[in-house]
Amino acid sequence: MQQEQRRVVVTGVGLVSPVGIGTEETWAGLIRGDSGIAPITLFDAKDYACRFAGEVKGFRPEDFLDRKDIKKTGRFIQFALAAAEFAVASSKLNLTAEDPERIGVYVGSGIGAFEVIEREYEKLLSGGPSRVSPFFITATIANLASGQISIRYGASGPSLTHATACTSGAHAVGEAFRAIQRNDADIMICGGSEAAVTPLSVAGFAAMRALSTRNDDPATASRPWDQGRDGFVVGEGAGVLLLEEYNHAVQRGAPILAELVGYAANSDAFHTNAPPEDGRGVRRVMQLALKDADLLPAQIQYLNAHATSTPLGDRAEATAIVQVFGDHAKTLLVSSTKSMTGHLLGGAGSLEAGITVLALRDQIAPPVTNLTDPDPACQFGIVLDKGIALPMEYAMTNSFGFGGTNASLIFRKLPADKTGKDVSE
Known about the structure:
Layout (H helix, E strand, L loop, with lengths): L7 E10 L2 E2 L1 H10 L5 E2 L12 E2 L13 H4 L4 H17 L11 E6 L5 H14 L8 H5 L3 H10 L5 E2 L7 H14 L5 E8 L4 H9 L29 E9 H6 L6 E10 L12 H14 L8 E3 L6 H15 L7 E3 L2 H4 L6 H15 L1 E2 L15 E2 L5 E2 L4 E8 L3 E8 L13
Parallel strand pairs: 5-6, 5-7, 10-11, 10-15, 11-13
Antiparallel strand pairs: 1-2, 1-8, 1-9, 3-4, 7-8, 9-16, 12-14, 15-16
Helix pairs in contact: 3-6, 7-13, 10-11
């Protein structure tokens, strides 16, 4: 006899972004339409085609790690630990009271510690192999975000790292959802983190002609769907969600922010860094997520799009949205918060998953900014400039990455009585 699939809810969200350090600071800034994009300060970018990025401003790793551990961790690990701390705190979870073998950690990264690789390679060239840090490897490799979180919280359940480019964070959340559904864990700390505002990273993306070069006005450079868009803006930060099995959350009186009800992943199988113009892979992944959630397109009220501000990618996603949602697209509200945060690469999908959960929690749809001349492909409702109040039960978020990898997640706001208890059953 087939076991009934377990329900999964979100009880914690932790965000570290160019708009703010902390979940509520980030969320408030996004609702206001604040830009986190500014000239690069982490290195001297005067000779670069793109001289701006979405940096996490004022981040102090000593606020989240012991000083002796800072040199042992890359910046992406530090962001992940900070975001996990915010997520665990907001969930009001006492981890010491839980079975550690039932707690897992899935935190992805597209690149890992790029800045450590660059620094240690320079030391190798200038001083020889004896100058390379003994912490080089463990500060750099992508799975040490998950590993360090597991160690900090004593989480001895499944620990995995998804390195699927710009879809890493979304895949980590989706696969954590599956782990709880199939009873591999009761609690999952999951998401993605990236710290790619480095000389080699920015130079590499610029060499691909992937980045905006609007150096005269960085705050408006990330402009998803605008006909004047000229590329994405590199951002950094992390998004971590705490997922729980529904009954486990209810029994401990957890603050249930949303239920995760649908997830899908697929591939364009088309090109390393460009989608097919008809958006067929994107269309299919949204359809599969709707099928997984057992929903009709008309039941989605808000969509946080992947839209990065690239000419081809934005148009392909817009085309797919119209194909999937049909007539409902005209009333569906869509935005891309990358207009304010830039593109967090491996951290983008989970940052935006967290934002989507907060949108459901507060019944406010966050905006897209800098959109003054919409692409004709955008035949759907758009949240412009400031967040707006929106009654919504279901919200979707999309993530796509190099290699044609795609993911879509769907969250639901649980109906509740005056005590906050779910009354949907």
